Amino acid sequence: MCGVVAVIGKQNASQLVVEGLKKLEYRGYDSAGIAAAYNGTLQLVKSEGKLVNLINKLKKEFNDKLYFKASIAIGHTRWATHGNISVENAHPLTSENKVAVVHNGIIENYEAIKNKLIAEGYTFRSQTDTEVLPHLFMKYIRSGNNLLQAGRLVLRDIKGAFAFVAMSLDFPNELFISRNSSPLAIGLGEKSNFIGSDAHSINHLTQRVMYLEDGDHALIKSEDVNVFNANDEEVNRKIINIKAEIGLITKGGYRHFMEKEIFEQPSVIPQTISTFIKNQSEINIDLNKLGFKHKNTLLITAAGTSYYAAMVGKYWIEHIADLPVIIDLASEYRYRKPSVFGQSAMLVISQSGESLDTLMALRHGKKLGLSTNAIVNVEDSTIDREVDYSLYTRVGAEIGVASTKSFTSQLIILFIMAVALGKKFNNLKTNHIKNICAYIHALPGALAQMLNMENKIKFISQNIKNAKSIIFLGRGLLYPLALEGALKLKEISYIHAEGFAAGEMKHGPIALIEDEVPVIMFLVSDGNEDKAISNLQEAHSRGAKIILIADKNCIEKAIFAHFKIEIPNFQDDFKSLLSPFLMAIPAQLLAYHIANERGTDVDQPRNLAKSVTVE
Ligand code: F6R
Fold this sequence. Notes:
The chain has 615 residues and is an alpha/beta fold. The chain has 3 domains: 3-241, Glutamine Phosphoribosylpyrophosphate, subunit 1, domain 1; 250-451, Glucose-6-phosphate isomerase like protein, domain 1 (Rossmann fold), CATH 3.40.50.10490; 453-615, Rossmann fold (3-Layer(aba) Sandwich). The protein is 36% helix and 23% strand. It starts with a strand and ends in a 17-residue tail after the last helix. It binds fructose -6-phosphate.
């Protein structure tokens, strides 16, 4: 994870770097720092905690508001991997107060390099893997190399996934940058250039952006950008025009971005729908592009919440299109020898388009000969650029660390894809598709109805906020919702929570039930509800506090539940396939309100980051 920014050729470079860092806090927020070359010295300011601490420190120490007048500066916001959260471990890391480096990723062979450098007389001040970089640069510059030559020698020494920017007082008008698996964008300006972990972090400075490819390195000056591939050959990378920044994204009157993102679902989901359904009932997904020539098995991989969306997708595609679907956790996929027998296409799902696990799974699938597709929110992200075909959720930036609107929009696309595949492979008739599209168009309204239940959910949250552990249950289509509800709750409230398939309780987890343990069940009348209600009854008779989120019929059957949230009835079986959309709202609101009651940092919970770019 971590975010890097650099500016060269602007008088207020350090101020612009801080502006860029503000947009990169989603990549990590446990410490931040900035280095600038000013008056022949290296100015270094670092602080623990969120970026605001760094900004306050800069204002205090450099009260001319421009921090310091330097035309070259690099900055970093950290998500700790090696070494605890401290000022010493915050980036930039330096060598002899002459070289400074900011880095995102992991130098896997740092131990061996570090031992060698220590033997050569270099002193390490941090516990980070990154600190080998400035010392290596120092070593090679000292032995007579220029910044480009030194950078190339450094690249020969290191292994791992990384994106870094290096500066040296010996070359005050140059930056050396390189990337391998971690993202890095170059922004091209007028007599100035910019570097950022994503294009968004620099799009207040320029709209002309170039992405480095894996293994590339570049020498950046204020008037020149020279990019080289892994064989040191100069290459031209495509310049693309990105959208101009329309001001900073705000909370729009809500207390948290997460709250805003939950409540904007009814207004942003129509954008996802209108991208994939034209003229009321024409499905706009190109199955040929998807790589489906025959009735093959579809492979879906993703991480976290996006993986739970994949679980729902599997259910739908198998049910509606009668196509086999294999789902796999992205972090596991490439570490097995997966068989691709009967498969021709893979689909990855990622809000950020940057999760390294998902990216690596994608590359592995590509190597195995699968055509690659993505459901992705961030256009031009690494995953978007590397797949054959992207399906965009288009729900706008998601800032809160916990995924909310991205989950429901991923579900929309998966459902529409299931219908498209059903038409092609399972004889789904045009008339039926028309009805299904009408159901889909009605979903934003149904989501708004669910949001009206907020007060009731708040009340329940107050009642269970002190629980040590909370259990979520679901069956079939709603089992992934139980997993998602538990994930949402644990990540922002820090309460231990587990999701189980209701039928699995008796195979072990029921041992966790004791007096007052909250058990939250998602349930709809799908013909199997009586079995699920029996599972709930078993928890009830062992003292659990039962919270049932269900339709009227189920609520009437489970009169023993302590709290009930009634969702609108589904009039037919097909419509009840859409229950995961509606159930996502109480899952999100419960987590949000419990976290609020406990006073945690909802948008930036501890130990997490929005974009997970380490393995
Ligand atoms: C949970 C959450 C994470 C992400 C996961 C994948 O609320 O946000 O579990 O879903 O890290 O991220 P993307 O979808 O960006 O690949």
